[in-house]
Structure formats: C-alpha cells, structure tokens
Amino acid sequence: MSEQGRILVVDDDETVRDVVRRYLEAGGFTVDVAGDGAAGLRSFAQRPADLVVLDVMMPGMSGLEVCRRLRETSQVPVVMLTALGEEENRIAGLQLGADDYVTKPFSPRELALRVGSVLRRARMPSVRPAPSEVADGDLRLQPGARQATLDGAELPLTAREFDLLAFFLGHPGVAYSRADLLEKVWGWDFGDQSTVTVHVRRLREKIEPNPAKPTRIATVWGVGYRYDPVSS
C-alpha cells in the first residue's frame, strides 16, 4: 500500500471509475475499484480501505445501503458521489455517516482534493492542539486516540463527527454560525451548510439524553450552534 493510503471507488459507471482511479493514483494513492455495491462490500471486507468513494445511484444495492452496511462495522471515511439536484440523497448519506460528498458532474481534481482533505482530518489527532483528555460530565474525549466515551461507553463517531465534537468541547459557550463551522471544522471556504445541520443532528442523537430537547448542543436562533457544558 502507498503511504498516501488505499482508496476504494464504488461506481457502476466504468468511465467514472477509470478517471477517478487515474487521478487518485497520480496523487500517490493505491486504488481498488468495484462496479456495484455488493462488489464494493466484498472488496472492503477482503482489503479494507482508508477511504471509500461511493456513488449514491447504483442499480441493485444503492450507495446509501452500502454506506449503512459499512457503518455497521467500520468508521472508514466515506465520500459520496451525488447527482446535481439530489439534495435528499446528499442529506440521507450524511445522516448515514458519510463524511463528505461531491456533486456530479464533478472535476476529478476536486474529488482528489476532497479525498485528501477528508483523509488528513481523519488522521489528525484533533482539530487543534489539545490535552490528552477533554471531559464534560460523563462525556470524555481523547484527541490523541480519537476516541470519545459517554458514561463509559465508546461513541461510534465518524471522523467529521469526532472533529465537530472536539471543536465544540474546545470552545464551550461560544455561538458559531454554520458557515463558521464549515470553515473551522471542515476547512471549507464555502459549501452546503446543511452538512453542518446533519452532523449536529447526528451528534445530538449520540450524546444527548433527549435529542429533541438538547442540553449540550444548543441551537442559537439566527446564528447557529453553541456548546453548553453540563459541568462547570
């Protein structure tokens, strides 16, 4: 395997697979390809990848179903490929745990840059220098190990969810807009702000006793979100 990492590309379009593979290999990645969802799952089981590029619309098993099955056993970063106008599929993918998405038709160079960005963040010890452990009541986060626990049980967080939680814990009591969070956590100067909304919703489902009435991640109307510690 290359130092850059192994990427699995799952897409039923042979031309897309070939173009993406060539661009990623030119960037130093080792690339496996699969032409459908079932083949993609078999490939991942036999040779786990560091990141999966996954088309949403495929015959048979959709990319959304592949993402759901991957999340049952792995927190591997996933970048979804969605067609222009498929906002519902983009949001569904993010809700299932995808880390990022690229809209078709896309620039292969943009996809390669997105893949590199997601991998770098997945490998970072944290979104900023941090102590060995950050704690808020029964919620504990270890940036170096990229591990978070709630009441002693490990939380199954994706790379983006971990980064977002680490950022919130590092900046308690401060309200941030969705655009701010896209820049500071995702590293995007622009993008679909619903990405932040979906990740906040997923975090609430994992750390709030009642996600419908959150006590930790508060919505600041007209602004964005604020993390309110349960312990002072």
Automatic annotation (TrEMBL):
Does the keyword section mention Transport?
no
Modification 4-aspartylphosphate, positions: 55
Which GO biological process categories is it annotated with? Answer: regulation of DNA-templated transcription
GO molecular function terms noted in the UniProt entry: phosphorelay response regulator activity; transcription cis-regulatory region binding
Record-annotated OmpR/PhoB-type domain positions:
131-229
The Gene Ontology CC terms held by the record are:
cytosol; protein-DNA complex
Residue intervals annotated as DNA-binding region are 131-229
What SMART domains does the annotation carry? REC, Trans_reg_C
Q: Which residues form the signal peptide?
A: none
Q: Which domain of life is it from?
A: Bacteria
This protein's name: Response regulator transcription factor
- The species is Amycolatopsis alkalitolerans
